[in-house]
């Protein structure tokens, strides 16, 4: 990759996929639509007007998209003033966000099923100022968009707690970059005050949090202004003559990992404690009574019909029911208070029915000398034990669903070699520092075999870098000065000096993680089925359980079935109660809620590790339905690095004059072909004796989408573009030019025509080689029953030649950006699901219009932002990977629903006793609990099978 300038060094390698706002305490960014932009000059006028305003840091206006992004300092200027300035310049402002919106992420604890996540989402949505809230069950996180003028994170967390869940703040929109320090030399509260004041006075520091007890400080800062080493130096310089302060980097334990370990340990401990008390209950109720005379002492009567066995079973089961099983009571209370029902309600109903009836039997036996009845203390105890075992195995399995994401996070190295330069530009020292202390513009030394610590530009050295951990590309990529490198990749054989351009949360690795986390949080449309079922599921199960109890109790009392059906030591009521409890427990909705999010988590993580960034369950679900893939040509099917292979004059203009006007006009265009033309024209100009690097000033520059550009150079009117532009401008194209164009188009070359003052002056033939994998990819897609179409702004002859080479039958050529989107809509109107693959700004409307937009990772930021799926390593084979992975994932989700509903569909009739009259087979409550736990574990393990996904098409070695 080439360095295009300072702005490119500061632009993120991957744009964040949050909303339209990115707000922090010092600077804010606002994005809005601008109407009335006709050319690049209009965009320049808006930028000039806004840049004059005090407090505006940067302005970017896209003439094609009609969109503006303004970064400003709110203490100096308001968003309203920015809007008024654009309107005063004669343009219309649309989609202007009138209110500030901040995004925060929360960790939510205590969610057991889809009903829980819906309840948490509903509680968040009811908070004043919250605009949007999304809760992910499998990720156990929430993303909340809120107005900071109305509410804050404290009120949002309180709403979650009031709904019966635990909540911790992960991050808020005000967090830019945060670093943690351990402080030494602190002896009093005054020392803390001194350090806090000094840090807060530093430019770029957003927020300072002091931990007086542990002598720690956390600082949020803007990496554009200040860095962590500067903050350490600031703390050390704060010491007075008698005081000496020192700060060293402190890495707090990862909250998610810590909480996950704590949750696993909690369920494991609860299960073992439950076993300690349930074991004796099981022995006293099922083992010893079957081993006379060993168990005869259990039948010794303490008082009336109350036996030692009954008393011991009651004593050992009570702690299981009320202490170890306390979590089910708490969960049920909060669920019923928010007018919903979840797994906790079913478990609490089932275990309490067994336990309370057993207590009734115990009291009746102690007060009557003739009463005979059986208690079910072992039922409630064993039920709780099996449910806790199931939850323990479930959280262990769920922890593995984010393994791919954890591996990505761990790619960044812990240390880096920093080079310090003197004023004369020579290296004066080299030191090993933590990667968290890297600041923008640092020069880092990467030795062979070391990982690249941050995103940057190579300033010296050559090597091969293995980027497979980020892009999935197995072959090392050759790197030389000027090329970009990505943090976390491996330097193979040469020593490199890299200038850090993106640090902390700005690195490509961090942004990949953020995109995948956002995707895992998003709810896939297929999950709506589970949501609808879960809303009526628990009430329906309770009704079914009650109906089961009545269905066995009333006929039993009426003598409608033989007394021989009733097991020994039971009566009609007890038999009916056991059937009812089994129905309650076996039909748990947990597995139903986990079916979709766990599969999406594994699939998005696996995709990211293979170079395919999927921005949510919606994109994942739509991609499996794709029947037509529309390809852009330049930069997508072709390499995107066009070169001029020939040039010809058709007038009396000199080659030097021809080159001068071409350079002047095309220098204003960002199109890849324009860059190739400028580079070639400069070489030609030098060849014909001119060594001037000066570029003539262009006036009235205008972009003709899909056709070319034009403007005035001095007193000359210049047009540079295709034949369509010449026809539209009434520039005659005579037979000699037509022959030149036809000759080159047969060779799959694009002809760029240049007119001066309405007369055709010359032409250049440009070729862009087809990507080596293009033909294989098209062939493979067709074998998947997916039709392939090419849509390009290039001329028909060149487009047809390229299409023939790669195997595409249907071609739409000479199409402008809006025309590409129209073609997509035409295909959609025929009832087909369309995917668009593109890389440029002119592909953005089509990427948005398509059901699934796939952006080539090396393309523009606008294209990446507009797409649903980003192919990081720009390899067309990943188009197949994205579609195939989505198909495998949706198939896995459907299988998960089979596992989730299969236990219920098969288990509920058996639990209700449908087989009992014919075979004597019944499902005891404790076994029903084991089936319920097995359904959740089966679903999670089924999703984990996606970890073994392999690409259907592997790259061939050169």
UniProtKB/TrEMBL annotation:
InterPro entries: ATPase_P-typ_cyto_dom_N, ATPase_P-typ_P_site, ATPase_P-typ_TM_dom_sf, ATPase_P-typ_transduc_dom_A_sf, ATPase_P-type_domA, HAD-like_sf, HAD_sf, HMA_Cu_ion-bd. Residues 28-94, 102-168, 177-243 form the HMA domain. It catalyses: Cu(+)(in) + ATP + H2O = Cu(+)(out) + ADP + phosphate + H(+). It is a multi-pass membrane protein; Peripheral membrane protein. The keyword Protein biosynthesis does not apply. It is found in: Membrane. GO terms for biological process: plant-type hypersensitive response. It comes from the Eukaryota. GO terms for molecular function: ATP binding; ATP hydrolysis activity; copper ion binding; P-type monovalent copper transporter activity. Its EC number is 7.2.2.8. One of its GO terms (cellular component) is membrane. Keywords: ATP-binding, Copper, Copper transport, Ion transport, Membrane, Metal-binding, Nucleotide-binding, Repeat, Translocase, Transmembrane, Transmembrane helix, Transport. The chain crosses the membrane at residues 271-291, 303-324, 345-363, 375-393, 536-555, 575-596, 897-920, 926-946. Belongs to the cation transport ATPase (P-type) (TC 3.A.3) family. Type IB subfamily. This is P-type Cu(+) transporter.
């Amino acid at each position: 990759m080439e360095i295009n300038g300072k702005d490119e060094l500061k632009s993120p390698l991957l744009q964040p996929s949050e909303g339209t706002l990115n707000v922090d305490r010092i600077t804010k960014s606002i994005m809005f639509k601008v109407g009335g932009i006709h050319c690049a000059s209009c965009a320049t006028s808006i930028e000039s007007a806004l840049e004059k305003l005090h407090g505006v840091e940067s302005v970017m206006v896209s003439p094609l998209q009609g969109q503006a992004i303004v970064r400003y300092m709110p203490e100096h200027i308001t968003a309203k003033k920015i809007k008024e300035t654009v309107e005063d310049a004669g343009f219309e402002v649309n989609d202007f966000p009138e209110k500030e919106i901040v995004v925060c992420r929360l960790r939510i604890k205590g969610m057991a099923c889809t009903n829980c996540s819906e309840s948490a989402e509903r509680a968040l949505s009811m908070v004043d100022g919250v605009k949007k809230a999304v809760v992910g069950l499998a990720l156990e996180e929430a993303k909340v968009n809120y107005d900071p003028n109305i509410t804050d994170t404290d009120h949002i967390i309180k709403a979650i707690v009031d709904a019966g869940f635990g909540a911790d703040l992960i991050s808020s929109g005000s967090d830019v970059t945060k670093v943690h320090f351990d402080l030494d030399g602190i002896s009093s509260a005054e020392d803390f005050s001194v350090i806090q004041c000094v840090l807060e006075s530093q430019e770029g520091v957003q927020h300072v949090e002091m931990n007086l007890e542990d002598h720690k400080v956390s600082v949020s800062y803007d990496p554009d202004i200040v860095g962590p080493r500067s903050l350490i130096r600031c703390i050390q310089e704060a010491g007075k003559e008698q005081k000496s302060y020192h700060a060293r980097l402190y890495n707090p334990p990862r909250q998610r990992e810590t909480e996950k370990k704590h949750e696993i340990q909690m369920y494991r401990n609860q299960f073992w404690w439950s076993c300690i008390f349930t074991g004796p209950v099981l022995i006293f109720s099922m083992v010893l009574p079957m081993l006379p005379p060993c168990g005869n002492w259990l039948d010794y009567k303490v008082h009336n019909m109350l036996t030692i066995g009954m008393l011991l079973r009651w004593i050992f089961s009570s702690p299981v029911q009320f202490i170890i099983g306390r979590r089910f009571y708490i969960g049920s209370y909060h669920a019923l208070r928010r007018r919903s029902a979840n797994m906790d309600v079913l478990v609490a109903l089932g275990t309490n029915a067994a336990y309370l009836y057993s207590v009734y039997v115990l009291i009746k036996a102690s007060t009557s000398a003739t009463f005979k009845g059986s208690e079910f203390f072992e039922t409630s105890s064993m039920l709780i034990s099996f449910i806790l075992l199931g939850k323990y195995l479930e959280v262990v399995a769920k922890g593995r669903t984010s393994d791919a994401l954890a591996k990505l996070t761990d790619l960044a190295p812990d240390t880096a070699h920093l080079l310090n330069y003197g004023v004369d530009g020579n290296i004066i020292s080299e030191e090993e520092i933590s990667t968290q202390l890297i600041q923008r513009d640092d020069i880092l030394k990467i030795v062979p075999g070391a990982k690249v610590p941050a995103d940057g530009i190579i300033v010296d050295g050559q090597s091969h870098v293995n980027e497979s951990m980020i892009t999935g590309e197995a072959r090392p990529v050759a790197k030389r000065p000027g090329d970009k490198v990505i943090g976390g990749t491996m330097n193979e054989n040469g020593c490199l000096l890299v200038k850090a351009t993106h640090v902390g949360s700005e690195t490509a690795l961090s942004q990949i993680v953020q995109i995948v986390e956002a995707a895992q949080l998003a709810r896939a449309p297929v999950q709506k089925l589970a949501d609808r079922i879960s809303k009526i599921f628990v009430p329906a199960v309770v009704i079914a359980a009650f109906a089961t109890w009545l269905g066995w109790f009333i006929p039993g009392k009426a003598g409608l079935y033989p007394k021989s059906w009733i097991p020994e030591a039971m009566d009609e009521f007890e038999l009916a109660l056991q059937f009812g409890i089994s129905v309650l427990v076996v039909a748990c909705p947990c597995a139903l809620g986990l079916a979709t999010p766990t599969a999406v988590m594994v699939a998005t993580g696996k995709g990211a590790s293979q170079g395919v960034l999927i921005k949510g369950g919606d994109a994942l679900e739509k991609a499996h339905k794709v029947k037509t893939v529309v390809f852009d040509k330049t930069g997508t099917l072709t390499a995107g690095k066009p070169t001029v292979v020939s040039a010809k004059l058709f007038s009396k203009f000199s080659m030097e004059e021809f080159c001068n006007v071409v350079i002047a006009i095309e220098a204003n265009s960002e199109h890849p072909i324009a860059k190739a033309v400028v580079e070639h024209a400069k070489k030609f100009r030098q060849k014909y004796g001119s060594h001037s690097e000066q570029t003539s000033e262009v006036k009235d520059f205008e972009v003709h989408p899909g056709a070319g550009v034009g403007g005035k150079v001095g007193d000359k009117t210049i047009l540079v573009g295709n034949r369509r532009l010449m026809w539209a401008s009434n520039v005659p194209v005579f037979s000699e030019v037509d022959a030149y164009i036809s000759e080159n188009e047969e060779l799959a070359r694009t002809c760029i025509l240049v007119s001066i003052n309405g007369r055709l002056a010359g032409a250049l033939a440009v070729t862009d080689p087809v990507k080596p994998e293009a033909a294989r990819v098209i062939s493979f897609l067709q074998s998947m029953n997916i039709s392939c179409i090419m849509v390009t702004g290039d001329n028909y002859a060149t487009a047809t030649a390229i299409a023939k080479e790669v195997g595409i039958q249907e071609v739409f050529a000479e199409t402008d950006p809006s025309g590409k989107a129209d073609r997509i809509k035409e295909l959609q109107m025929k009832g087909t699901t369309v995917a668009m693959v593109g890389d440029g700004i002119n592909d953005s409307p089509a990427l948005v219009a398509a059901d699934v937009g796939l952006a080539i990772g090396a393309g523009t930021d606008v294209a990446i932002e507009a797409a649903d799926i980003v192919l990081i390593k720009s390899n067309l084979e990943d188009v197949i990977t994205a579609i195939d992975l989505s198909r495998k994932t949706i198939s896995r989700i459907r299988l998960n629903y089979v596992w989730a509903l299969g236990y219920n569909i098969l288990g509920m009739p058996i639990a209700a006793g449908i087989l009992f009259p014919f075979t004597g087979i019944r499902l005891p409550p404790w076994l029903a609990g084991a089936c319920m736990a097995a359904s959740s574990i089966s679903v999670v393990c089924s999703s984990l099978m996606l970890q073994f996904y392999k690409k259907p098409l592997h790259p061939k070695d050169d």
